[in-house]
Amino acid sequence: MKFCSECGQPVEFRVPEGDHFSRHVCSACATVHYRNPKVIVGCIPEWDDGRILMCRRNIEPRLGWWTFPAGFMELGETSGEGAARETLEEARAEVTIGKLFVVINAPSIGQVYLVHRARMLHPGHGPTPESSETRLMTEAEIPWTEIAFPTVYHSLRYYFEDRRGNTEGFHMLNLPHRTTLSPD
Ligand code: ZN
Q1: Which terminus of the chain, N or C, has less C-beta within 10 A?
Q2: Ligand 1 centre from 37 Cα, in Å?
Q3: CA of 75 to the centre of ligand 1 (A)
Q4: What total of structural domains would you count in the chain?
């Protein structure tokens, strides 16, 4: 950030009085522009036969790689509502959202991942502008070497481990920190 969104004057990157972190502070109107982590919500939609719904990404980053439906949470929705919305947007599939079962902190990129269990209401699904292909997969069909992000990989591992153990666990994972955070 270079200019204040309130008054248009240049901002400085410094620690405001009484604070502990550097912030973008307006040099003219003194507005402090806070930046906080983004929340990504997703779900693993399962159909009655035990297969789960995967999407091949049609957008960067990781174009052509596989994920389950997930995306940035919007203002005004719950994590479950966001995950259901992403499933409709990315795979044209309708789900009932179940328990939250994965929380992954990714402090190096300022993101938190919330992943729910989900049941498909019917087996319908299909490609969208965000997914070039959607497919119901057994565990053996998961393309482990073509998974788009570590968060997706770990969540899928937890999901199938739980299922083999006939449990519904809850999993928290903290990915490594980066030593410095860029002010941009
Ligand atoms: Zn200002």
Answers
A1: C
A2: 23
A3: 24
A4: 2
Tens of pLDDT, residue by residue over 80-116, are 999 999 999 999 999 999 999 999 999 999 999 999 9
State CA 159 to chain mean position distance. Answer: 16
Q: How far is the CA of 32 from the centre of ligand 1 (A)?
A: 9
Distance 172 CA to ligand 1 centre (A): 39
Distance CA 69, CA 110 (A): 20
Whether residue 93 is found in the same domain as residue 31: no
Cα 36 to ligand 1 centroid, rounded to whole Å? 19
What local confidence, expressed as pLDDT, does residue 180 receive?
A: 60
Q: What is the structure's pLDDT at 181?
A: 55
* Any domain includes 117: yes
Look up the CATH number of the domain holding residue 3.
2.20.70.10
Mean pLDDT of the chain: 96
CA of 11 to the centre of ligand 1 (A): 7
DSSP string, 146-179: GBS-HHHHHHHHHHHHHHHTT----EEEEPPPPS
Domain-located, residue 168: yes
- Mean predicted confidence (pLDDT) in 15-43: 96
Answer yes or no: is 42 within a domain: yes
